Every structure is written in structure tokens, then in C-alpha cells.
Amino acid sequence: MPTRKPLIALDADGVLLDFHHGYADAWHRAFGLRPGERDPLAYWPVDRWEVERLQGERLSHFGRHFDLHFWSNLPAIDGAIDACHRLRDAGFDLVCVSALDFEYEKARLGNLRTLGFPIERVVATGHHNGARSPKADAITALAPVAFVDDFLPYFRGMPASIHAALILRAPNGSPNAGDELSLCHSRHQDLAAFATAWLNDECRPRDCEVVQVP
Question: Could you tell me if residue 133 is left (phi over 0), alpha (psi between -120 and 50 degrees) or otherwise beta?
Fold first, then answer.
């Protein structure tokens, strides 16, 4: 019987894909003007770009542009594609676990594959705020050796046996602070930094051995 490769689960927006630039593109499609940049270190796109805080019909109009086109065309974060190839070449399989509505699961996979990510599966979990991450059940079932996300609350309810790697990225207004940092086993600036640390055994658990499978 072939040996199963160890699995690493990766978030999409903020880890693999640049939601911020997708947000600016959606604004352009909705209102005909691409917004200027207000704060390149802002965690949330509404703070990153020079945009108004919408209400009512204008908010609904903007929301309609988070459609199939949007979820199919987000750009890759710098260094993320190379990081995934390095992890894959080292003997790990990769899966994307995204707090996305199920109807866009295939669009997300197509987006990743078109960009050249070596990822063949997306698991859409939906999204909600609560004491337990919307991704917890999927991660538990997949049983990866590591789970990488850029949103600290999404580590709530994860099995302690799974290495929880937090991507810090933009610090201004970030939710990635406070007591819940104890949920994470390691912190990294981006996926490229995680891949380097993981492959150099700087954060990988000692019992996580890479299994080379033909």
C-alpha cells in the first residue's frame, strides 16, 4: 500500500491570495474608480484603501460584486506560489481550507490552479463568528500536520495535535493579538516565511517526518 503524504492545510485569503487587491478591483467594477491606497499596513481592506464606509443600497450594490468573477480572479500573494511548490517538493500534500460559501468552492480551486498553485482540493466551510472556528470540523477531519491561517479566531477549537501557524501580515488594526495567541504554535510574516521555517525544522514538530512517495 502506498504511504500517504503528510498534509498541510492552508487558508486562502491573506495566505495564498491577495484579497485586498481583489477588494480594490471589486470597488472599481462597482463604482468605476480604483481607490488609492491609504495605509499599506492595514489588516482590513476598508482601512487599506481610500474608500467610504458604505451603507444601505450602496453597500448592497458593492456586495453583489463579490461574485463568481471575484472569487475566480484574485491574484496570488508575493512568494506564495513558490512557497507551496517548495512544500510540495519536500513531500507534503496541500489542501486549501477557506471560510467561503460552498457555491464558490470550484471557483476558488480554479483560481488557484490557474495561478499555478500545486493544490488540487479546496474545502469551503462557510463563515461565522463564534466560540468555535467555522474551519474546526474540516481541519479535524482532514487531520493535517499543520494548519496555516492569517485570522487568529479561526484557530478556535482546533485539535492541539495539529501545528497551528499564524500568518501575521499587516499589523494595523490586526485581530492577531491578545491572549488567543496561545492557540498558535508558531507565527510568521507570510507563507514564504512559514515554508522556510517549516522545511528548516525551525517550527516543525519532531514527530512530523516527511514521507517521500513516488
Answer: beta
Return the CA Rg of the chain. Answer: 17
Burial of 79 per CB tally in 10 Å (0-12, 13-18, 19+): middle
CATH superfamily entry for domain 7-18+76-199: HAD superfamily/HAD-like (3.40.50.1000)
φ and ψ at residue 8, rounded to 5 degrees: -120, 125
Pairing of strands 186-188, 93-98: unpaired
**Domain positions in the chain:** 7-18+76-199, 19-72
The residues, any chain, with a CB within 8 Å of residue 57's CB and separated by 6 or more, are none
Q: How far is CA 16 from CA 6, 51, 84, 123, in A?
A: 19, 24, 9, 14
Please answer whether residues 39 and 47 qualify as being in contact, where contact means their C-beta atoms are separated by less than 8 angstroms. Answer: yes
pLDDT at 213: 37
Decide if pLDDT at 106 tops 60. yes
Secondary structure class of 23 (helix, strand, coil): helix
d(CA 116, CA 133): 29
What is the reported pLDDT for 175? 95
